[in-house]
Amino acid sequence: MGYISPESLANLEKYSYKGVDKSLLSRYVLSPYWNWLITLWPRTVAPNTITLTGLAIVFLNFFSLLYYDREYLTQKHGAVGPPRWLYFTWSIGLFAYQSLDAIDGKQARRTGMAGPLGEMFDHGCDALNTTLEVILASYALNLGRSWWTVASLIATHANFYLTTWEEYHTGQLYLGIFSGPVEGIIMIALIYFMTGIFGPSFWDQGILTFTHLSRIPPLQRLPDLPLNVAFMVFAGVGLGFNILTSYYNVRKSSRASNTSSLRPLLLLLPFVFSTLPQLAWLTHPNPERSQVIYTPVFVPFMCAWGLQFAHQVGRMILAHVTCGPFPVWDHVWLLSLIGALDANLGRIRHLEPLIQSTMKRTTLFVWATLVISLYLYGRFCYLVIRDITEYLGIACFTVKKKDEKGVWRKASPPVNAVNGFKSNGHAIPLGNAKRKS
Question: Which ranges form a coiled coil (predicted)?
Fold first, then answer.
């Protein structure tokens, strides 16, 4: 018995990618570049290998941060900080990740490897990148160990969850005029570039001072928010807009299929439920003196949180491609529930924490949570890849498929797929929708 049930595996045959990309930047600027970039890759390279290469670049960026400031202090908290040129490598690396993430679907069609495995693999890499970029971007913005970094992580996870939730209920990936995978990534790459020029402290100056709007008398009454905080406010407004857009699309789809438009809203609660224990854990012993945020375990904590989130949305995507029920509970949350309950025993029963009674024990428990979360997510990825590749007879990192006799053969693309047409003659918009692997 595999991880995926036989009934769910059978539903993989019904999977068909559908995507909408309304981004003007993607359509008129990036798509021509992506269509050129894909021609540089030989057809012997598997699409998932391209995706994994992009994620590896992001990990290099992350490890370079740890090399120069493993305690995540930032200049604001007294760290010397990495050399300025490093931020330029982060900018280039993130743009490279976006480029490779955009062309993996094109490579899948060129090689005849398009299918649900690519959808799973692509979203899994995106989920990991989401957390890593929050850590890097918050460092570049000189936010570091702060509740603003936590707020940024929650907002970014919420956007990703919303997109996945919407795709589950509508059957298609919808990218609006402004989306995280396109404009959001370009914006963060520009932040890295600006930090490379001016340094992280550049983002601490007030937005009214920077724009010289403080010279206008009526505007002098407004708070002169630092640029980094203003960016967080902008992200919050964007999140609100995405919530409304996602619900509008889900409601429209529900009406078209004659189903309830209120029930999908209940399936937003798993995200809330998974986030609350993390926040409760972070408030120990109180929000102003968090034993996690203001200590070196902050980055391991966020990484563990990110792995648990990746596991959660990974199961959502699996439910989407297998037409399965929406996952409302995830056992990986138990780790954070234990951490949150233990840290807050004083508030619940007026007791001292049993596990996190000292900073050393807190550090050990956070690292243990990270290691266990990494194991559980790695196990999930392995089992899902194994079941799908065995059932569909496709390889994950090579361009091969099994023939009728079970012998591995080189895969071949459908007729005219390279020119933008499926074998049945229906056009594929190569330049717009992003993920079709």
Answer: none
Residues 6+ away with beta carbon under 8 Å from 51:
100, 101, 104, 118, 121, 122, 125, 437
- pLDDT number for residue 420: 40
Tokens of residue 162, six digits: 């919303």
Q: What is the pLDDT of residue 1?
A: 55
Q: Is 212 in the active site?
A: no
Asked whether residue 427 is assigned to any structural domain, the reply reads no
* Regions of the chain where pLDDT drops below 70: 1, 414-437
Tokens of 182: 């396109």
Q: Is residue 370 part of a domain?
A: yes
Query: For residue 112, what are the domain limits?
Result: 6-392
Q: How many domains does the chain have?
A: 1
Q: Are 348 and 318 in contact (CB under 8 A)?
A: no
Please tell me the predicted confidence (pLDDT) of residue 349: 78
Which one of 77, 123, 169, 426 is the catalytic residue? 123
pLDDT at 415: 56
Nearest in space to 389 (alpha carbons), one of 9, 8, 7: 9
pLDDT at 414: 61
Helix (H) or strand (E) holding 429: none
